[in-house]
Design brief:
heterodimer, A: alpha+beta, B: 207 residues, alpha+beta, 3-stranded antiparallel beta sheet, two-stranded antiparallel ribbon, 4 helices, 7 strands, 25% strand
Chain lengths: 422, 207
């Protein structure tokens, strides 16, 4: 009987925690996981999922002459089909022998390092996917404002908010045509990122030709006009050209356009909010507000607080700390003109989105799990010599796409100023 | 058949139920939140159906099934908040918070079918009351406006008046960091559930 290899032990540990992985992933505290896998949609195959949309109502209304007049012909509703195809995402986690040896006790060591890496990896993977949710579906995580050596100062939005230290990134030209890393064979990894004050990203290698206005995309994308997760800016968009889920926006300029309020680089005001909310009410009905959430960056939540009209948090904390049973009567949820606020450090700092999540869904081809080949979930790393390297690797992977079957059910305010101090 | 019998058609349908907040409640909020420059209360409680606001532009009137009935360009007074059957606490916001009248009309004027309509109505020259929060239970259920609830709201308002604004930003980031830590702690707890009791170490039962 061969000696037990460490890979076998780690594989056993992974199997032990396998059913916990979906739990760690699906926790309902980030936007991505607030968007539910839709129960009314079959789990999709690798073919496009089709979303039938009623694009125009049917029927011919009018008066007629009852004294033998012609009642005319009718018409039916018009439908078109939006299509969604899943994108595969992976998160690779490597454990070195040193990490294992760093703790004493053989069994506990393996268990602890596995547990730690699964938790850390899942947290980071969730964060990565949530960051993609803030994008326009092309994988662009930020735009370079200035280049100074290996330091990029990023343009707001999104500044340096959508990358993390250790992440492999790629640099494209501003038209998303030339992949500078692919053409030069250079790998670029983020060393540090400051998404709050300087908006600087420091990287290890800068591919030749990198200039201001270039954009940063995530690892794994290739070719011109790459396609990634369809995020908020893809669906909540008032463009009348281009495509949306394979439909031509120019063909349906009204029903595919999300109502927009342009704040003109000014600070958030109650009028902005009312304008956005009223646009939804006018197009969908005066009482159509019950399912909206106001999704925004912490900076815009701060801007709203600065207006001094959020009292719910005060109620929750409040009254000089002499909390009593009445605390239980209030939801304690901060609201924006009655719409519950959901804020995120990943959201665009110059934007507020009003989302009706009942229209959003995830089309899933593969649920999150360990990547598996013939029952194996842990794989050895090979050294340059062809021999084993003292490390192992395992992956999380998933395949899905995000859709919104009614872009008009939301609204957004953009080009907002950030409050002072940022 | 004796007794009362109503056909559906003869029943009275209440379309809009209005209520005014009792004067003693208004007085309590006035003493807690102070007065604005016009001598009016900074805070007030309003019933959802009573609170109307201007909405202008092109409306698409639809049937309950969502079918489009008509499109019309006009200025309407409609309930300002979606929760029409709830009490809402509002705070007065000064006119300067809405910018100048020129900015207001530049930002809110909508043009539809050849007409220009101010989407939020006329400029709020005397300021405007804005939504603070809705008085309702944790599951969104109706809560009546009782003296004890109003007292609690008033206490919180009084408490908040002495609170510096400067630390709010830090508090928001602290909250986010706390959520991150709580996820990590929760995740480790979940993982601990996946391993045998006492991490598989042998143990004996002590009587």
């Amino acid at each position: 009987m061969p000696a037990q290899a460490n890979a076998n032990v780690i594989a056993l540990q992974l199997e032990k925690v396998r059913d916990k992985v979906p739990l760690l992933y699906e926790r309902d505290d980030i936007l991505l996981t607030m968007i539910q896998q839709r129960g009314d949609i079959e789990k999709i195959s690798s073919r496009n999922m089709r979303l039938p949309l009623q694009v125009n109502p049917g029927g011919k209304a009018g008066s007629y002459n009852a004294d033998g007049g012609d009642l005319g012909r009718g018409s039916g509703s018009q439908y078109d089909v939006a299509q969604v195809s899943p994108i595969f995402f992976r998160f690779a986690i490597e454990i070195t022998k040193l990490a294992e040896y760093a703790t004493t006790g053989r069994e506990r060591a393996v268990e602890d390092s596995t547990k730690r890496e699964v938790v850390n990896g899942m947290r980071q993977f969730r964060a990565f996917l949530d960051k993609l949710m803030q994008t326009a579906g092309n994988g662009v995580l930020g735009t370079i404002n200035t280049v100074s050596g290996t330091t990029f100062t990023m343009a707001v939005p999104n500044g340096a908010a959508l990358v993390y230290p250790g992440q492999t990134i790629q640099i494209y030209d501003t038209t998303l045509t030339t992949n500078r890393n692919a053409s030069s064979g250079v790998t670029t990894t983020v060393q540090t990122a400051d998404p709050i004050t300087t908006q600087n990203i420091v990287v290890d290698n800068v591919p030749p030709g990198t200039v201001a206005t270039d954009v940063i995309v995530h690892d794994g994308l290739s070719g011109a006009q790459p396609v990634s997760l369809y995020g908020i800016k893809y669906h909540q968009n008032n463009a009348t050209t281009g495509t949306w889920l394979n439909l031509n926006r120019a063909q349906y300029p009204v029903i595919l356009a999300t109502p927009r309020v342009n704040a003109g680089n000014a600070a958030l005001t109650p009028a902005n909010v009312r304008l956005a909310i009223n646009k939804v009410r006018k197009s969908l009905g005066i009482n159509h507000l019950s399912k909206l959430i106001a999704y925004m960056a912490v900076e815009q939540e701060h801007a709203w607080e600065n207006l001094g009209i959020t009292v719910s948090q005060v109620i929750k904390e409040g009254g000089g700390g002499n909390g009593n049973d009445l605390d239980l009567l209030f939801t304690g949820r901060k609201t924006m003109s009655g719409i519950p606020i959901k804020s995120s450090v990943n959201a665009d700092q110059t934007r507020v989105d009003f989302l009706d999540l009942s229209h959003w869904g995830r089309a899933v081809l593969k649920d999150i799990d360990f990547y598996e080949v013939n029952g194996n979930t842990v794989f050895p790393i090979y050294g340059g010599s062809g021999g084993l390297a003292s490390a192992f690797i395992f992956y999380f992977d998933t395949a899905f796409q995000v859709f919104d079957d009614s872009p008009r059910s939301g609204a957004y305010i953009d080009t907002l100023a950030r409050p002072s101090g940022y | 058949m004796g007794g009362w019998a109503f056909s559906k058609a003869s029943m009275i349908h209440v379309l809009r139920e209005t209520h005014e907040a009792p004067p003693e409640i208004a007085a309590r909020l006035k003493s807690a939140g102070g007065l604005n420059r016009w001598g009016e209360a900074n805070y007030r409680v309003v019933w959802g159906w009573n609170r109307l606001g201007w909405i202008g532009g092109k409306f698409e009137d639809r049937t309950p099934a969502g079918q489009l009935l008509r499109e019309v360009v006009e200025l309407r007074r409609e309930p300002k908040y979606a929760e029409v059957n709830r009490w809402h606490v509002e705070r007065w916001v000064p006119p300067e918070a809405y910018g100048s009248p020129r900015t207001w009309y530049a930002q809110t004027m909508e043009r539809a079918a050849g007409r220009s309509v101010p989407a939020l109505g006329p400029y709020p020259a005397r300021g405007e009351y804005e939504h603070c929060f809705t008085i309702q239970g944790v599951r969104g259920e109706f809560l009546q406006l009782t003296p004890s609830i109003v007292e609690r709201v008033a206490q919180a308002i009084e408490w908040s008046r002495g609170r510096p604004k400067s630390n709010r930003r830090e508090k928001l980031y602290e909250r986010e960091a706390h959520q991150e830590r709580s996820y990590e702690q929760w995740a480790f707890d979940v993982m601990d559930d996946a391993v045998p009791a006492l991490h598989g170490q042998p143990f004996v039962t002590v009587a």
